[in-house]
Amino acid sequence: xxxxxxxxxxxxxxxxxxxxxxxxxxxxxxxxxxxxxxxxxxxxxxxxxxxxxxxxxxxxxxxxxxxxxxxxxxxxxxxxxxxxxxxxxxxxxxxxxxxxxxxxxxxxxxxxxxxxxxxxxxxxxxxxxxxxxxxxxxxxxxxxxxxxxxxxxxxxxxxxxxxxxxxxxxxxxxxxxxx
Length: 179
What we know:
The chain is mostly helical. The protein has one domain (6-173). Helices cover 82% and strands 0% of the residues. The chain has eight helices and no strands. The chain has helices at 6-9, 12-27, 30-37, 46-67, 70-98, 105-125, 131-151, 154-178. The relative contact order is 0.16.
C-alpha cells in the first residue's frame, strides 16, 4: 500500500469526528452519561460542538495547506491530539474508572486511534515533526483536552486564537526568510 501524504491524511480527521459524534449523540446519549460524572460547564448543544470542532479542524487543515510550515503542522497535530487522541483516552479511562460504558468508546478506539496514528506517522515520515516534538504535542493536546473538559469552551477559543496567530506569523517569517 502506498504511503498517504500528511496533507491527505489530515482530511480523515473531520470524517472520523463526524462518525464519532454520530455514535455519541445519534445512537447513544453521551451528554447524559457525562453529566453523571463531570461538571455541567458547557451550555452549547451537541450540534454546536459538532459544528465548532469540525469547523476548527478544517481551519487547522486549511491553515496547514496554505502556510505549510512546521508550526502549522504542529498546530494541526495538537488540535487532533486534544480533540481525538485524548478523547479516546478519556472514553477508555472513564469506562474503566466508572465501570460504565462511555458512549463514543467504540469509534474512539476503532477510528480515532488508527487514523491519528496514520496522521502522526505521515507527519514523521515527511519530517514535519520529530519523535520528541510529537511527544510534546501529545502532552500539549492532553493539557488542552482536560482544560476544555473542566473549564469549557473558552479554553478552545483562547488556544485556537493563540495557535493561529503563531502559525500565521511563522508563515510570514518563513516567507521573509526566502526573499
